[in-house]
Amino acid sequence: MLKNLAAALAAASLLLPAAAQSPAPLKIAFVEVAPLTEAGWVRQHEEGRKALQAALGAQVQTQSVENVPEGPDAERVIRDLARQGNKLIFTPSFGYMEPTLKVAREFPDVKFESITGYKTAPNVAAANARYYEGRYLAGIAAGRMTRTHIAGYVAGFPIPEVLQGINAFTLGMRSVDPQAQVKVVWLNAWFDPPRERDAAMAVFDQGADVVAFHTASTAVMAAAQERGKLAIAYHSDMRFAAPDAQLLAVTHHWGDYDTRRAREVLAGTWKPTNVWGGVREGMVRVEHFGPKVPKAVQDEVLARQREIAAGTLRPFAGPIVDNQGHQVVAKGAALSDEQILGMDYLVAGVQGKIAR
Predict the structure, then answer these.
(1) 319 prior amide bond cis, ω within 30
(2) Distance (Å, whole) CA 82 – CA 112
(3) CB within 8 A of 338, min separation 6: which ones?
């Protein structure tokens, strides 16, 4: 009798729709602002996607669309992905924030993650990382390694995130080399390898022997390798492009965040949070020191990194003066998160103006 019952139940299960036996995977999409290359901003988000897929397996189905310009194209692509049935969409670029919010209003059942955005909505979360913490640490390394007391900085757009990085790098550098000066070149582009290279060459011609950048290719690293200078890799380890020139890398890590948010969608617990993580949360770190960096410098930088993680070192603690001579942070004070997020000036030691 029991055998017959078991057989009947097994036969009945074969008649059930596939969806009843196994839920359809959660469809997740990523929109990327530049081409996928071996390293850089898009590469780190691709690594985050791959980590999410590996962690959740058959529960999810992920895809990414690369090289989507900010503006109308982004809005079109985000809308198309929502129409395709993606229920969680990551949009990792500041210029995607407004298009994301617009599309989100049309698709209230879709969850959106605006990475580097700051506005939220009932179905839009915002997340960013404290890249400036890594920049400060890179500045310490640059200050220890420079011989000319001049660094270059190839910058994308003059948004607060980029200004935070320039200022933190300069403050870190001048904490160990008070004479240090940082020459900024604005590109008003995130990904333009020929112009990135030209900008790096220009600051080398102006006496810089180390360069940092906030763009999305390895062109600055390759320029430093060619000229026999030092460079701070950004987003990813870039020693493959500059094996001798890399001073260290400021790296970004999105896998844990992406996976956690997908789990929350699956569990029905997702909320429109606004996250700003950094060294302490494992979202930013300095690593991959190059062959020219003495162990003493590596140890110093890693010790400061531990202090940032512990909360005992704050990159934007006073006194801080801007490059127009105005005090912006008094001695004994420190910038609040709100003040950091609204940063609109360059600190003393930066040679350049904010491109308007």
Answers:
(1) yes
(2) 10
(3) none
Q: What is the pLDDT of residues 242-253, one digit of tens each?
A: 999 999 999 999
Q: pTM for the complete prediction?
A: 0.88
Question: 210 with 236: CB under 8 angstroms?
Answer: no
Q: Is the dihedral of CA 217, 219, 222, 227 positive or negative?
A: negative
Residue 306's pLDDT band (boundaries 50, 70, 90)? very high
Q: Which residue has the tokens 């020139």?
A: 245
Residue-wise burial string across 286-307, b where 16 or more C-beta atoms lie within 10 A, e elsewhere: bebbbeebeeebbebbbebbee
d(CA 136, CA 316): 9
Q: Find the mean pLDDT for residues 305-327.
A: 97
Residues found in the chain: 356
Both tokens of residue 15? Answer: 């008649």
Q: Which contiguous run of DSSP H or E holds residue 338?
A: helix 337-341
Q: What is the pLDDT of residues 35-46, one digit of tens each?
A: 999 999 999 999
- Beta-bridge partners for 128: 276
Q: Extract the tokens encoding 305.
A: 């990194």
- Please give the single-letter amino acid code of residue 288: H
